[in-house]
């Protein structure tokens, strides 16, 4: 066994590395890296040996298949995963496995990684997979942390790391406010490019909490950002897709040769096919159009705190009409104080008393409130972060309404940003809501040594009763498993996601077991009450897909029909989002209950 040696290597930067940090965030990232490695005790386990071979092919044939792949794509662009699994950290993440795995780290693991340099290479890889019956799994950047990272669902899949060589910004159109990107373009990368072209003041990138993910990967997994353009899927326009049998299609206006509206009109003519390429395993996206937001001519962040847990219900009743009428303009966040304390980036041990020193004794509300009272924001239970857009007279109209409405909750406090130190979380939200990617969010992972996280993300209407029900459900189940509870509500337009992040020690089997059991109970109990997840981790995909079971699972059967028609040999990302192709079905690949093994019992024969 050895410990990771990367602790002292410099943080990769853009544009040298497509996955790097912009220079304006380098100091922040370097400091974060230090804190991550300071808390790390998990050793890297030796595994010098041949790669994991996926089911359905014998080792000898698999090694021949890899030689064939090397010949087609180039030997230097195929790397076999026969080395120790190094977890790295956010900016130096692995593409072979889930760096925050909740199972044994050998479960969701790739056998090899291939780096295509063009759409034609992607076609060759897909045809190769059909020839040898090897499962393949595309990633763009592989930073889908909390949902599986870069890991494939089927053990031994060959990961297609699209981003490393296909990372061009193919177009930025400052008149139409659109762009066309390849898979390896991150939010950081697009923002930097706007800067280089003198366009940062002109048009904004809608960025998630951290900007290191790719625009394509985040959008196809239906991620969100925090400007008024927050719903990334709704904001994309046009895809180029390699189908699982190797054909290329362009969707929307891209299907019309010579069209100059591919990024301006998403629908084209006929059925709107884009939908089947998000949260699915029906195709590999090699290009995507995205809309950018015009600079609104001014912006102003605001933050309010609320004292009591019970303020949640009346607050939601206030937020809903304001949000739907766009007085509250962006996907705003309502965060619980426990998460605010964790977001300070210190280990849990900094806050607890001796009575709760064990990881299986949750921190008490008293300890959390005592810690909150010492912060610049002061004690509270809920904090609302929002932004108002437009010139001052437009903003002041909206801000006055918000202020009057929020103050209907007794104890409501408006936080004056000038009273906050410059590294306060508020300023990170301020950047992100104004289209400036930041690097702050994952600090709460430091709560536990070797901190990993995994999310429970149910959708509900913006209503007091629903918010309270989901909050109580999460709280009770966390108490059942003795886990600290970090809830935050992200308010969309007519719905909200409750995002609960469970932070666990990746080197503590008991902690991981409790975290997974807690998640499984939350998914089932939420579904019983009518709430479903908007997105989920690889380990929960079968369970979550099962909750969308109306009419004897008719939607799942429809997805299977599409899967079998488009991917008859079931080679593309089998099992992703709970969709299994015909060669895998009926062989026990689904993961539900307390099962820890990700593999089923064999794979069926070739279909075509
Ligand atoms: P990010 O870019 O945010 O780091 P990932 O690259 O990890 O995200 O992608 C998130 C998920 O979306 C992946 O697990 C993969 O299943 C899917 N995905 C990513 N890129 C593509 C793509 N270009 N085509 C099809 N599916 C993709």
Automatic annotation (TrEMBL):
Record InterPro entries: Cytok_DH_C_sf, FAD-bd_oxidored_4_C, FAD-bd_PCMH, FAD-bd_PCMH-like_sf, FAD-bd_PCMH_sub1, FAD-bd_PCMH_sub2, FAD-linked_Oxase-like_C, Oxid_FAD_bind_N
Annotated GO CC locations: mitochondrion
GO molecular function, one term: FAD binding
GO biological process: lactate catabolic process
Domain of life of the source: Eukaryota
Cofactor(s) needed: FAD
Segments forming domain FAD-binding PCMH-type: 106-295
Name used for this protein in its record: FAD-binding PCMH-type domain-containing protein
Species this chain originates from: Podospora australis
């Amino acid at each position: 066994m050895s410990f990771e040696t990367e602790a002292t290597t410099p943080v990769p930067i853009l544009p040298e590395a497509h996955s790097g940090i912009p220079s304006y965030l380098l100091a922040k990232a370097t400091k974060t890296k230090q804190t991550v490695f300071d808390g790390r005790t998990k050793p890297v386990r030796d595994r010098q040996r041949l790669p994991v071979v996926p089911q359905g092919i014998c080792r000898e044939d698999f090694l021949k298949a890899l030689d064939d792949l090397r010949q087609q794509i180039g030997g230097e662009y195929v790397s076999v995963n026969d080395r120790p699994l190094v977890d790295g950290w956010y900016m130096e993440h692995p593409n072979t496995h889930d760096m925050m795995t909740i199972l044994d780290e050998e479960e969701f693991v790739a056998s090899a990684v291939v780096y295509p340099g063009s759409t034609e290479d992607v076609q060759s890889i897909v045809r190769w997979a059909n020839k040898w019956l090897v499962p393949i799994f595309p990633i763009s950047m592989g930073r889908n942390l909390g949902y599986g990272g870069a890991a494939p669902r089927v053990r031994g899949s060959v990961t297609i790391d699209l981003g490393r060589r296909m990372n061009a910004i193919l177009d930025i159109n400052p008149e139409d406010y659109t762009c066309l990107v390849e898979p390896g373009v991150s939010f950081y990368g697009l923002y930097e490019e706007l800067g280089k072209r003198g366009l940062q003041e002109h048009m904004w990138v809608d960025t998630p909490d951290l900007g290191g993910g790719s625009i394509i990967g985040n959008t196809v997994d239906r991620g969100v950002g925090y400007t008024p353009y927050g719903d990334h899927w709704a904001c994309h326009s046009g895809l180029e897709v390699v189908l699982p049998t190797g054909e290329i299609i362009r969707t929307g206006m891209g299907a019309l040769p010579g069209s100059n509206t591919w990024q301006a009109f998403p629908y084209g003519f006929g059925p709107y096919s884009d939908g089947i390429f998000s949260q699915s395993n029906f195709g590999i996206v090699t290009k995507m159009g995205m809309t950018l937001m015009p600079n609104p001519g001014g912006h102003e962040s605001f933050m309010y705190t609320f004292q009591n847990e019970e303020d949640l219900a009346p607050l939601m009743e206030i937020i809903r009409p304001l949000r739907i009428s766009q007085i509250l303009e962006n996907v705003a966040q309502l965060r619980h104080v426990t998460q605010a304390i964790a977001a300070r980036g210190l280990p849990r041990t900094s806050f607890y008393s001796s009575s709760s020193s064990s990881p299986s004794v949750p921190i008490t509300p008293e300890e959390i409130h005592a810690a909150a009272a010492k912060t610049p924001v002061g004690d509270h239970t809920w904090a609302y972060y929002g932004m108002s857009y437009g010139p001052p007279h437009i903003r002041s109209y909206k801000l006055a309404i918000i202020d009057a409405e929020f103050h209907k909750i007794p104890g409501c406090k408006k936080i004056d940003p000038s009273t906050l130190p410059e590294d306060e979380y508020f300023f990170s939200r301020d950047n992100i809501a104004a289209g400036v990617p930041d690097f702050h969010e994952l600090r709460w992972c430091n709560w536990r040594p070797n901190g990993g996280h995994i999310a429970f993300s149910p959708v509900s209407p913006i209503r007091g009763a629903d918010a309270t029900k989901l909050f109580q459900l999460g709280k009770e189940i966390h108490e059942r498993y003795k886990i600290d509870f970090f809830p935050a509500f992200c308010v969309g337009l007519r719905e909200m996601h409750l995002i609960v992040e469970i932070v666990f020690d990746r080197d503590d089997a008991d902690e991981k077991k409790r975290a997974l059991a807690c998640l499984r109970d939350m998914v089932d109990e939420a579904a019983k009450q009518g709430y479903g997840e908007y997105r989920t981790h690889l380990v929960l995909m079968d369970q979550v897909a099962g909750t969308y079971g109306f009419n004897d699972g008719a939607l799942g059967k429809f997805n299977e029909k599409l899967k079998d028609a488009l991917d008859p040999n079931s080679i593309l990302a089998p099992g992703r989002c709970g969709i299994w192709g015909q060669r895998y079905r009926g062989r026990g690949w689904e993961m539900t209950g307390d099962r820890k093994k990700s593999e089923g019992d064999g794979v069926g024969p070739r279909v075509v």
